[in-house]
Write a structure and sequence with these properties.
Number of strands of chain B: 0
Number of strands of chain A: 0
Order of helices and strands of chain B: HHH
Strand content of chain B: under 5%
Chains: A mainly alpha, B mainly alpha, C mainly alpha
Oligomer: heterotrimer
Distance between the termini of chain A: 68 Å
Distance between the termini of chain B: 53 Å
Number of helices of chain A: 7
Order of helices and strands of chain A: HHHHHHH
Helix content of chain A: 55-70%
Structural class of chain A: mainly alpha
Radius of gyration of chain A: 21 Å
Shape of chain A: globular
Helix content of chain B: over 70%
Chain lengths: 178, 102, 414
């Protein structure tokens, strides 16, 4: 059913990166390591995007998540001295959370696998279409009148608002008098 | 060809790990990182469904791009709030920041 | 039946004809391609260090390396050998894995960029449809490597240096990406081969000199070259984030930096100086490699000239120039450029597709774009001049109040 070729090997390696990195994020005590585990996990997701023939999103994923967000998180770890006040990693209800999450995963897994159980289940995609929209089509769709032009503009306003908000909130009181 | 359900399964697992991090970690920065994991799980789903079910219609990719925007905004504002909280309370352990709790 | 002349493109069919398994032949030719693409920068860097030292020496009225080999050509090899034999120190309390990882990432990120450099019309590592975005994405990993190197050293000076370097890299990424959008606008594609091909009639540096200047200056800052070398000012500080590194790991950081500068020179040549375009390239595509090399050499020597003659900025000046001058300029430039391109289309000045590589056919649109760039540049230079005068007069007024002599020369704050 699943033949062994370059794609499946890549998928296995990337899955290990994604899930291993994610486990590192939620279990590691050292938060700088946590941020680097996050980078590893997100790099795996970028690899998924390449496998799914969305190279534009893969590049943006690396640029936004690794180049910006991961660096931001490391800065936050350093500036809030999260390193020096480690204490307990988990809170008291961690086992409760673990049970809930495992139950949720079982539910999701059942929802994903049951419909395609057995061969030839209805709705299962067996061949991928060869023609795929690329970055040009995405760009056109984002600014097309019947496409996503309104969400696109709202997203830009959101980014502007977030930028102004972040500057205002994070500014030191002393700076305002200067 | 890798079947669609394998992508969905990995995404579901990633999402659940993210939820566990949000629920069980005490440090607010770690919680924010876990939220990023959850957003990425959503993105894997969006792009995988786009590739398998509607590769000509760009909705899946467009939604993933909007998720990037949300994630960037969330990280910037969230971490700025964390810095502010740290300055006033000298702590980023979420259990110490409970002034608004009824 | 084709003969096996061009090794890179025809290796796999040749091997298949010789009775090899197709998969193995493909893998082998791919691996060979990767090795060749990665070796070009690695070998040139040895020569580059020699050129750089000779050049600096001549400017400073010295001779430079002249002991090892003819004209001191083998000096870099001797230095590499020396680095290898030095003791490899890991500071106590350092994060061992990350400490060893940082130099490797430094090297890898630079080599990765070479995958998208079009050497000739036929030879390119990978002609990605998102070539430029790939370059930006790989470049943004640079901040992570600085963070890892600075933090894992367990040295507060290394960490401070890392913070400052990241602040610089992240800031100058903004105008760099915005300037890169201008060639993309003009070529209508993000692929490197498409971008080069679009310059057949006219180089982009003529069509948008402002974008070329912004890209070049922002990259000078990214590579930490003078006048932006305040983070590891070699005449004042010991080093920046890599202060704890010694031996071969330090050598990898240094070689990575040299290679980064060279990579930037190649990219400038590809994006703004027409890449492999040159006489007779249509008849003999391999000639493109030589044209690209010549253009790269010009850009590289220009960077060396700047490095050895321009004084260092202060950190506040560096940030002011970026956020108050280069970012606004690049944003306005994109608006003006896209407006002018629309105007050119409306006026019908754009050359017909079959005339796209003709110099004369490209002249009208080039003149319009060039005029727009010059006017915009003049306006911004005027604003800069006025701002500088205001600052200088404020300084002089302050000096008069304090009863001191007026300070000589205004601050070059943007």
């Amino acid at each position: 059913m699943i033949e062994l070729n370059a794609q499946t090997i890549a998928f296995a390696v990337l899955s290990a990166l994604v899930l291993g990195g994610a486990l590192g994020v939620v279990t590691t005590r050292n938060l700088v390591h946590g941020a680097l585990w996050l980078v590893l996990s997100l790099l795996g997701v970028a690899g998924y995007f390449v496998l799914l023939s969305a190279p534009f999103l893969a590049a943006v994923q690396v640029l936004v998540y690794i180049g910006a967000i991961a660096i931001l998180i490391v800065f936050a770890v350093m500036l809030t001295r999260s390193m020096t006040s480690l204490g307990e990693v988990r809170n008291r209800q961690w086992w409760l959370s673990a049970i809930t999450v495992i139950l949720l995963f079982l539910l999701l897994a059942a929802g994903i696998i049951l419909p395609v159980w057995g061969r030839g289940a209805p709705g299962e995609v067996t061949t991928l279409s060869a023609t795929v929209g690329g970055a040009a089509e995405l760009g056109a769709a984002l600014v097309a009148g019947d496409g996503f032009v309104l969400p696109f503009e709202v997203a830009s306003i959101l980014l502007t608002a977030a930028m102004i908000g972040a500057i205002v909130v994070a500014r030191d009181e002393e700076d305002e008098q200067a | 060809m890798i079947p669609l359900w394998m992508y969905l399964l990995v995404a579901a697992l990633l999402f659940c790990i993210g939820i566990y991090g949000v629920l069980a970690r005490r440090n607010a920065v770690a919680i924010l990182m876990s939220v990023e994991l959850m957003l990425n799980a959503v993105n894997i789903n969006l792009v995988a469904f786009w590739r398998y079910l509607a590769p000509q219609d760009m909705s899946g990719q467009a939604f993933a791009a909007f998720v990037f925007v949300i994630a960037a905004a969330e990280a910037a504002v969230g971490l700025a709030i964390l810095l502010f909280v740290y300055r006033t309370k000298r702590s980023v352990i979420v259990e110490d920041v409970n002034l608004l709790r009824w | 039946m084709t003969t096996c002349v061009d090794i890179i493109n025809t290796l796999s069919p040749c091997l298949v004809r010789a009775g090899w398994n197709a998969d193995v032949a493909n893998l082998l030719s791919l691996l060979l391609g990767v090795v060749i693409v990665a070796t070009v920068p690695l070998l040139t860097v040895i020569l580059l260090i020699w050129i750089e030292r000779k050049f600096a020496a001549r400017i400073q009225d010295r001779i430079g390396p002249n002991r090892v080999g003819p004209y001191g050509l083998l000096q870099s090899l001797a230095d590499a050998l020396k680095m290898l034999t030095k003791e490899d120190i890991t500071p106590s309390g350092a994060d061992r894995i990350l400490f060893n990882l940082a130099p490797i990432i430094t090297f890898a990120t630079v080599v990765l960029i070479w995958a998208i450099i079009p050497f000739t019309p036929l030879h390119i590592g990978a002609d990605l449809s998102i070539g430029i975005l790939y370059f930006v994405a790989v470049g943004s990993i640079g901040a992570v490597k600085v963070m890892i190197g600075g933090w894992s050293s367990n040295n507060k000076y290394a960490l401070l240096g890392a913070f400052r370097t990241i602040a610089l890299i992240v800031s100058y990424e903004v105008p760099m990406i915005l300037a890169l959008l201008v060639p993309v606008l003009m070529a209508g594609s993000m692929g490197m081969q498409d971008l080069t091909r679009a310059q057949g009639g006219m180089w982009f540096i003529v069509m948008s000199p402002l974008a070329a200047i912004i890209f070049f200056v922002a990259n000078l800052a990214e590579t930490g070259r003078s006048p932006f070398d305040l983070l590891e000012a070699e005449s004042e500080l010991i080093a920046g984030y890599n202060i704890e590194y010694s031996g071969f790991k330090f050598g990898m950081f240094m070689a990575g930096e040299f290679m980064h500068v060279f990579t930037v020179a190649v990219l400038t040549a590809v994006l703004f100086l027409g890449g492999w375009w040159g006489p007779f390239v249509d008849q003999l595509p391999a000639l493109g490699f030589i044209w690209l090399g010549l253009k790269t050499a010009v850009v590289y020597l220009f960077m060396l000239l700047i490095r050895n003659t321009v004084p260092r900025f202060r950190i506040d000046q560096v940030m002011n120039i970026n956020w108050k001058f280069m970012v606004p300029l690049s944003i306005v430039l994109i608006l003006v450029q896209s407006f002018l391109l629309r105007l050119i289309d409306a006026l019908g000045l754009r050359p017909a597709p079959e005339m796209a590589n003709d110099l004369l056919a490209n002249l009208p649109q080039t003149l319009v774009l060039l005029a727009g760039n010059l006017v915009l540049g003049a306006i911004f230079m005027h604003l800069l001049q006025r701002h500088g005068r205001t600052l200088r007069e404020a300084d002089e007024a302050l000096a008069v109040v304090k009863g001191e002599a007026a300070p000589s020369g205004g601050l070059a704050e943007a």
